Fold:
Amino acid sequence: MTEVPRHPRAPATPAEVREACRHGRWRGPTAGLAPGHVQANLVVVPLADAFDFMRFCQRNPQACPLIEVLDPGDPEPRLSAPGADVRTDLPRYRVYRGGTLAAEADDIRGLWREDLVAFLIGCSFTFDEALRAAGIPVRHVELGVNVPMYRTRLPCAPAGRFRGPLVVSMRPIPAGLVARAVEVTARLPHAHGAPVHVGAPEALGIADLDRPDWGDPVPVYPGEVPVFWACGVTPQAVALHCGVELMITHAPGHMFVTDLRAGWG
Amino acid sequence: MTEVPRHPRAPATPAEVREACRHGRWRGPTAGLAPGHVQANLVVVPLADAFDFMRFCQRNPQACPLIEVLDPGDPEPRLSAPGADVRTDLPRYRVYRGGTLAAEADDIRGLWREDLVAFLIGCSFTFDEALRAAGIPVRHVELGVNVPMYRTRLPCAPAGRFRGPLVVSMRPIPAGLVARAVEVTARLPHAHGAPVHVGAPEALGIADLDRPDWGDPVPVYPGEVPVFWACGVTPQAVALHCGVELMITHAPGHMFVTDLRAGWG
Structure:
C-alpha cells in the first residue's frame, strides 16, 4: 500500500498526538494519525448515570465496544494510555446538556468534577487502516475528509435512561470487495466489528446519502455498494434523544489516541 | 464425534434445564446439558457495588466476559433467556457474606432485593463442546466429573473494592493438539477465549494439580500438557479475598443455561 501522508507535520506517535492536543497544536480530525494504534470515542457522564450507560454499551457492543472505563473522577486511562489525561488530550470536545449540544471546547478541565466517569469506546479509524492494508479503498481517507455518519431508524437496546437510534458510518466499497471488507472488520470487534448493514440505505431510514448527520458526504461510484458500520457517535445521538443532564464527548472525528496496538483485543 | 449421553433422563433444551432446576428436578452440574447453547456463571451484587464490579469484569475480560447485565432488581435475562428467572433457574447457588461462604441454596427468592444486580458471565462449558467437535478430548467431560479449578498467584486488574487472584480451569491436552485447542477457543471470547497459560503450573503458583481449589482432580497422562483457561469462578475468589458485603453466585459447575446459541458473539 502506498501511503501519502496527508499532514506532513502531523504528530506521529500516540504520545505526540496527545501532547499536540494538550498544547493546542492539533485541533483537527485524528484519522490517519499515529498509524497502528487504537483510537477511541470519548463519553463522560456523571457517576449517577454511569452504571446505566455501561449497561447501554454492553447491550450495544457494535456501536459501543468498551476499550476502557475509568474510575470515577479519574482522568487518566491507566490501562490504555498511562500518563494521559482525557480532559486535555483530544483535539476537540462537545458538551451536551439536557438533550442539546450546549458547547464545543478545546479542553474540559474547567468542567471536570470528582463524580465524572470517562468511557473510551472503540473507533472505526482503527479498521480503516486494516481495510487499506487488505487492499480495500477507503474513500474518506483518500479524500482527506471526515467519514459520513447517519442517524438510522434502528433503535439501540435501551438501559436505564439511555435509549435512542443507532448511528452508522458509511464507506462505499467495490462490490467485489464487500465480502473481504466484512471479513477484515469482523476480526476487529473492539473497532465496531463487522458491518451492521450492506446496501439499501433506505431500509435504515437514510433518505439521502449526500446529507450525512455528522461528518462529510463522499461519492458512491457505479459498481460500489454503501456499507454501514455501527458508529461510536451513537452515544451523542442518545444524549440528544433522551436529554441526559450532562454528557461530554469528543467532537466527531476528533478522537482520543491510545497507546494500544491495533491488534489489541 | 460419538456422544454417549451421561444422563439418560437429563433435560435437553435450555428451557427444560431451567424448568427442571426451578422445580427441584435437577441439582447437578450442567456440563453437557442443552448442547449447543451458551452457559453462564452468575454473580449477583448490590447496586452500590455494581458499577465497580462491572468495571472489574471489563478489565478482566478473559475471566469475566459479560454475556448480559440485568437491570437493578430485575431477575429476568431479557436478552439471553427471556422469561427465565435467575433466582430459581440454576441448580445450586452460593451466598458469600463479608468474605466468607455463608451458605449454599437451591433457590434465592428469599434473598432477593430490589437493589440486587445480576451479571451473567461466559463459561468454559461452551468451549468444551467446541474442543470436542474439533476432535480434542476433554478429560473431565469424559470422566463425568467437574472441571478442576485453581486459584493462581496472578492478580486480576482491580476496580473499586474488587481485587483478587485469577482463577483458572485446567484441561490436559495432548501435546500435538495444544495449538489447535488455542485456535478453537480463541474464537470464543465470550467463553473465556484462548488459554492464559500453557504448561508449567508452578509458574501460576499451583503446587499440586491433584488438589484443585474447586471442582474435581483429573489425571494428566504422559504426552499431555496441562492447559489453563481463565475461569468464571474468579469473582468468587474475589469475594473471598476482599470481603464484599454480599455476593450471590452459582455453585461451581452449576451454571445458568441461556437460550443463546454457542456461535453467539
